[in-house]
């Protein structure tokens, strides 16, 4: 199955400071900024473009239940996940399971941009948080 890097998610404590760095120092462009109150997300998200590549800056909005808050508490700020775009998320999930890779079923969702996504179990990915995603209206 064909995969392509979609974006890198970075956990940050202070979204304003992080945006300032990426935009002023690295010349990134802000694409969108929004707050997700969805269970298992609970974060403020800034999507930036850096010379054609996407980065998601993720800042927790609930320090008790946000997975980003837990990540920062355990590992500190920094790269949270790497997302790979696949042609068909449903087929990719079947393929992963056939290869013995577990997915975090409760993470399956569609975000506000129409991206369907699911996270792979980090216990099966050498500890790296990996997201698979597709854009049903687009082909890669």
UniProtKB/TrEMBL annotation:
Keywords, comma-separated and alphabetical: Metal-binding
One GO MF term: methylmalonyl-CoA epimerase activity
Domain VOC: residue ranges: 4-135
One Pfam family named in its UniProt record: Glyoxalase_4
Listed PROSITE patterns: VOC
Domain of life: Bacteria
CDD domains: MMCE (cd07249)
The UniProt record lists the keyword Transcription: no
Keyword Transcription included in the entry's annotation: no
GO biological process: L-methylmalonyl-CoA metabolic process
Family, per entry: Belongs to the methylmalonyl-CoA epimerase family.
Protein name: VOC family protein
Organism expressing this protein natively: Metabacillus litoralis
């Amino acid at each position: 199955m064909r995969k392509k890097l979609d974006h890198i998610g970075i956990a940050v404590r202070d979204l304003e400071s992080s945006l300032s760095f990426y935009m002023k120092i690295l010349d990134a462009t802000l694409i969108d900024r929004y707050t997700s109150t969805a269970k298992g997300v609970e974060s403020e998200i800034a999507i930036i473009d850096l010379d054609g590549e996407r980065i998601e800056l993720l800042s927790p909005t609930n320090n008790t239940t946000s997975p980003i808050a837990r990540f920062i508490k355990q590992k500190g700020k920094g790269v949270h996940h790497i997302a790979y775009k696949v042609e068909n998320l449903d087929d990719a999930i079947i393929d992963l399971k056939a290869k013995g890779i577990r997915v975090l079923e409760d993470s399956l969702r569609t975000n506000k941009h129409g991206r369907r996504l699911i996270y792979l179990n980090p216990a099966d990915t050498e500890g790296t948080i990996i997201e698979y995603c597709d854009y049903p209206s687009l082909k890669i």
